[in-house]
Amino acid sequence: MAARRRKSSVYRRLSIKSISSLHSHTLELVIPSDFGREDLEEEAAYKEPNNRVLKDFIPIKVLGQGAYGKVYLVQDKYTGKLFAQKQLQKPTIEIHQKDENHTKYVKRTILERQILTNITHHPNIVKIFYALQDDDKFYLILEYIPGGELFHHLTAASNTLGNVFKEDDVAFYSAQMAMGLRHLHKLGIVYRDLKPENCLLNSAGHLVLTDFGLSKSIGNSHDDSCTSIIGTPEYMAPEILKGEEYDYLVDWWSLGCVIFDMMSGKPPFTGNSHKAIQDKIIKNKINFPFYFSLDAKDLLNKLLNKNINKRFQVDSNWERFKTHRFFRKVNWNALESQNYSLLTPPIVPVITDPILAENFSEEFTSLPIDGGVSINSNQNTSPDPFKGFSYTASNSYIEKFC
């Protein structure tokens, strides 16, 4: 029997959990008969998407919580549309102080916004519409994906082996993860935090990658690389843990870990401490459960090869990856052309009403809407100490995807 799944890993790394999403939920606007001309002019101005400010987004529920802040389900008070608002607490250190951790935090926060705005319209990657700030926080106004975390559905999955997915279902989801990763790599971005908690399902059941707080842009040259020891321990490649230089191959290792996780109920290497997990990743061989097929074992041995020179070079061997027998039932043509009428996702989330956030953990949705959220925040009008953070997508982009 598969082991009981661990609790969600939202606190397992020092970065806010980004459950990023959108759904068009319409709210009827009632304008009183004595609404003044001045107010009508203001209302008309605010209806333009590029005029949004923090107070225009009303907090509804908490969707997630991490080290630096929370993620809220918010509603545009003029259109009724729903968004996910990721809040990040600004550093309390004065901006002129040369503190290494402060500098890294600022760079990472701005980089997440920049990465999201560069990705634009890929179906398997969350979209950003606004980046705002006030004196205390950064705010990313993101697509609200009402189907919730893959982790949520994985913990609820049930078959004869326990809390795991069937192999064909795993192939479907991992194919969509791979498409998202490949798109990121083509843009020169290393994701660095693939795990079930960062994979969401949209209303139709298709997978969307979220949370780019640990991502890094290294360009399209393979001469560039990363060196930071960063990520969620169970899904980190051995070269990261050893402090070696690394690039896109770490994401394919993580994909192998997530495939193993979906099929068994836990990642391939686990332990009671980060040190124990690290030692196993670097030294131990993979122990496959007896029910893994030969095709699954073959693919995982290729993705989870500790030798980077022998690991599956998916980016440069994409066609070979797609034709691996593990994916034999996946309709890649329909996935890549977004012809979803030919696809039936393993899970189509039950969504009674998107505003209820019923596919997100009650651990978060039951939390109170505390002080300091956007409705009570004063937007920063002083000279921007975090130059380059604020952002508004084009009207056409907002209207197309909202």
TrEMBL record:
Q: Which residues form the Protein kinase domain?
A: 57-327
Keyword terms, alphabetized: ATP-binding, Kinase, Nucleotide-binding, Phosphoprotein, Serine/threonine-protein kinase, Transferase
What superkingdom does the record give? Eukaryota
Gene Ontology MF terms: ATP binding; protein serine/threonine kinase activity
Q: Write down the SUPFAM superfamilies for this protein, in alphabetical order.
A: Protein kinase-like (PK-like)
Q: Which residues form the AGC-kinase C-terminal domain?
A: 328-401
Query: GO cellular component annotations, sorted alphabetically?
Result: cytoplasm
Q: Which Pfam families match?
A: Pkinase
UniProt keyword Kinase, yes or no: yes
Indicate what this protein is called per its UniProt record: Kinase-like protein
Q: What is the lineage of its organism?
A: Eukaryota, Fungi, Dikarya, Ascomycota, Saccharomycotina
